[in-house]
Design a protein that fits this description.
This protein has about 300 residues and is an alpha+beta fold. About 35% of the residues lie in helices and about 30% in strands.
C-alpha cells in the first residue's frame, strides 16, 4: 500500500496484496484455507494481507502491519482477503489519513464497498479496473469516446534500447457499478507499444484523484508501482532468505501468525538498514568522534 513518493508530489502510495504462507497437513483445517490443484491434491495454508509503502523509482518497499485472514469471533461467514483489507483500514486508517494516503490494489479491491471504505477513512484509491468485472463502467467509457469526451495523450520515449509509444486515455466521473448509488470515479488507461507495433503493456485504473493531461503520467506510474508488492515484497520474502512459505510451526491458534509477523519485522529492519546504507559512513564517523571524545575525557579524568 502506501517516503517514499507520491501522486502529484502530495500523496503517499500504499499497496495492498495478500500472501499465502505456511503449508500444513489437515490437522488444522478450521484455521487454514484450501487451494485445490488439477492433480487432485489440496494445499492448506494461512493467508495474510501484507500492505507496503511503494513508490515509482524507489527500489525498496516498506512493510506495514499485516492483517491475517482468519475466522472472526461473532461472524458466521468465512473470512477473506477483502474483509481483512477492510479491517486493516479500520485499524490503521486513522493513523495514515493525515499523510494523504492513496491505496493501490488489483482488480479484486476495485469494487464499491471497499472503495467506499477507503473514502470513509479519508483516503484516496488507485485500483486496477478490468473490463470483465466493470462492464458498465466500460460502456460509459465507450459512449464518452463516441462523443469525443475521452481525453488522450501520446508520448514517445527512448529507453536506451528501443523506442516506445505510450498512449493514455482518461475520462472523469463514470459509475463503478450498475446501481443507483454507484460511486463515480475517474478512469485512466495506458497502452505501450514498440516501433513494430508490438503490445508491451496495457492496464487501466479507477481512482478518486482528478486526472489531467499534466498528471496522468504520474498517476499511471503510481498505479504501476503496485507490482512492487510482488517483486520487492512477496518475491523477497519467498526466495531471498526469509522462507516465508515455510511451515515453522502452527501452535494451537496464533503461533503461525506470530512467527510470520516476526519474519515481516526482520524484513522491515533489513529494509531500514538498506535505506540507511548510504548514510552509514557518516554514522561511523560520528561514532568514531564520540569514542575519541570519550577517551579524551577518560584520560583527563585519570590526571
Amino acid at each position: 500500500m502506501p517516503g517514499l513518493v507520491s501522486i502529484n508530489q502530495q500523496y503517499t502510495a500504499y499497496s495492498l496484496g495478500w500472501y499465502g504462507f505456511g503449508q500444513f497437513g489437515k490437522d488444522f483445517l478450521s484455521l487454514l484455507y484450501p487451494t485445490d490443484f488439477k492433480n487432485g491434491k489440496t494445499l492448506f495454508r494461512h493467508i495474510v494481507i501484507t500492505p507496503v509503502i511503494v513508490a515509482p523509482g524507489q527500489k525498496q518497499v516498506i512493510p506495514l502491519p499485516p492483517e491475517f485472514v482468519q475466522a472472526q469471533d461473532g461472524h458466521e461467514k468465512q473470512d477473506c482477503e477483502l474483509a481483512a483489507a477492510k479491517r486493516w483500514l479500520i485499524n490503521w486508517g486513522p493513523h495514515y489519513t493525515e499523510r494523504r494516503v492513496t491505496i493501490l490494489g488489483d482488480d479484486l479491491y476495485c469494487h464499491q464497498p471497499y472503495c467506499q471504505a477507503i473514502i470513509d477513512q479519508g483516503m484516496d484509491f488507485l485500483l486496477v479496473c478490468k473490463p470483465d468485472s466493470h462492464s458498465l463502467l466500460y460502456e460509459w467509457v465507450a459512449d464518452f469516446e463516441r462523443i469525443g469526451h475521452v481525453q488522450t495523450l501520446e508520448i514517445t520515449r527512448w529507453t536506451g534500447k528501443k523506442r516506445l509509444t505510450e498512449s493514455y486515455r482518461f475520462v472523469k466521473q463514470v459509475p463503478l457499478r450498475d446501481s443507483d448509488d454507484a460511486l463515480h470515479v475517474n478512469w485512466c488507461e495506458v497502452t505501450i507499444i514498440d516501433d513494430a507495433k508490438k503490445l508491451i503493456y496495457r492496464n487501466a485504473w479507477a481512482t478518486t484523484h482528478d486526472i489531467t493531461p499534466q498528471n496522468v503520467q504520474i498517476i499511471v506510474a503510481a498505479g504501476r508501482a503496485r507490482w512492487k508488492i510482488e517483486n520487492e515484497n512477496n518475491n523477497i520474502l519467498k526466495n531471498h532468505g526469509y522462507h516465508f512459505e515455510h511451515n515453522y510451526s502452527h501452535g494451537n491458534k496464533h503461533l503461525a501468525n506470530l512467527l510470520a509477523t516476526l519474519n515481516l519485522l526482520a524484513f522491515l529492519l533489513h529494509t531500514a538498514l538498506d535505506c540507511l546504507k548510504s548514510g552509514m559512513p557518516i554514522f561511523r564517523h560520528m561514532n568514531s568522534v564520540e569514542r575519541e571524545n570519550e577517551n579524551r575525557q577518560n584520560r583527563l579524568a585519570d590526571h
